[in-house]
Write a structure and sequence with these properties.
globular, six-stranded mixed sheet, alpha/beta, 12 strands, about 40% helix, Rossmann fold, 2 domains, 13 helices, single chain
């Protein structure tokens, strides 16, 4: 798969694709085009030709230190820009450390215990490894316990980058989803909101647990009708907001498990909403698109570039024999206050449009 093919699919120049893929934080003229480039690269399983890149730059060393694979477990149709951005940073770190990325693997079922039970996981992992025998593996996204066990049986050097901890099953770089959710919900509570909804994955998800914990800490009764199970995509966010429109007693504050859900909800509010219902919405991830919604999205920013850097560092350190016990690096999130949240008494001042 080449940059030219991605450019043809998205309908942009080869140079634009090259700039976006080589520098994840590149300020593209259109955030939608940038996300389409990332999505096309993932869909078409684009892997940079590092040998050619080094020859062109005059930095070819003649060999690579290690061959590394990436396994993405949270892609199920609509691509979440958070993972696209994170993967791009990981690719950059692999290259910077004179290693080569051989393949990006995808197995959405690994993020769900129920779906894992339907698979012959042992056989699936064996086939995955037999065609991709690399020195190390980086798992991006939540991975079920059975999946981790089988992956470790093939790849001896594995690191996870995630918001859900693996309980020290493998090396991991973690931005704790539970703590992220607590921070988000407590911000809504400080603004005076007490009828707060959760929109996202409610099954074995740390962010959902954090949402519940924050309510309990502040003596707010959890309303099951305000716990909306949905997939982590923009369309799911639109559908979730349409469900909220049908409620007799709607929430004044909404915590979305990720930004792309919130983007969908804001779009639904802008297109179908009423000036008499303008909830405060907060989410987590801080994808590039969060800066371009109207109102701009208040979110918990995850340090994607640092997550990528430490993931590659941990993997290389294990490969070099630098550590043998299981290691965890936990990074914090940062509250980014924009205009999608307001105090309860002034919530009618928010205007929605994307």
């Amino acid at each position: 798969m080449s940059i030219k093919e991605i450019a043809e699919k998205v309908g942009v120049s080869v140079s634009t694709v090259s700039r976006v893929l080589s520098k994840p934080d590149h300020k593209c003229s259109s955030i939608e085009i940038r996300d389409k480039i990332f999505a096309a690269a993932i869909e078409m399983n684009y892997v940079p030709n590092e040998s050619a890149k080094r020859l062109r730059s005059g930095k070819n060393t003649g060999s690579f230190l290690y061959r590394i694979s990436i396994l993405v477990t949270r892609t199920d149709g609509d691509t979440d820009p958070f993972f696209s951005e994170l993967i791009a940073f990981i690719q950059g770190e692999i290259t910077r450390n004179t290693c080569t990325l051989t393949e990006i693997l995808y197995e959405p079922a690994f993020s769900n215990e129920t779906e894992c039970d339907k698979l012959d996981i042992r056989q699936a992992v064996r086939e995955m490894y037999s065609t991709n025998k690399t020195d190390g593996l980086i798992i991006v996204g939540k991975c079920c316990e059975k999946g981790i066990k089988q992956l470790k049986s093939q790849w001896k050097n594995v690191v996870s980058v995630n918001r859900n901890p693996t309980n020290y099953a493998i090396d991991e770089v973690l931005c704790d989803g539970r703590k992220i959710a607590i921070s988000a919900v407590e911000y809504l509570i400080r603004l005076g909101h007490r009828r707060i909804a959760y929109v996202g994955d409610c099954r074995s998800e740390c962010r959902f647990k954090g949402f519940q914990e924050a309510l309990l800490t502040h003596n707010i009764e959890a309303d099951i009708d305000l716990m909306i199970q949905c997939g982590l995509s923009e369309n799911e966010g639109i559908n979730a907001m349409q469900r909220i429109f049908q409620m007799a007693d709607r929430p004044t504050g909404i915590y979305c498990a990720n930004d792309i859900i919130a983007v969908g909800m804001l779009k639904a509010l802008g297109k179908f909403g009423s000036r008499y219902y303008e909830p405060s919405i907060i989410s987590s991830d801080d994808i590039a698109q969060a800066k371009y919604t109207k109102p701009m999205l208040t979110t918990l920013s995850l340090p994607k570039e640092e997550m990528a850097r430490f993931a590659v560092y941990l993997l290389l350190d294990r490969l070099k024999g630098g550590h043998h016990s299981t290691a965890r690096i936990e990074l914090g999130s940062t509250l980014i206050v924009r205009s999608s949240c307001s105090p309860l008494s002034s919530s009618d001042m928010i205007e929605y449009f994307i």
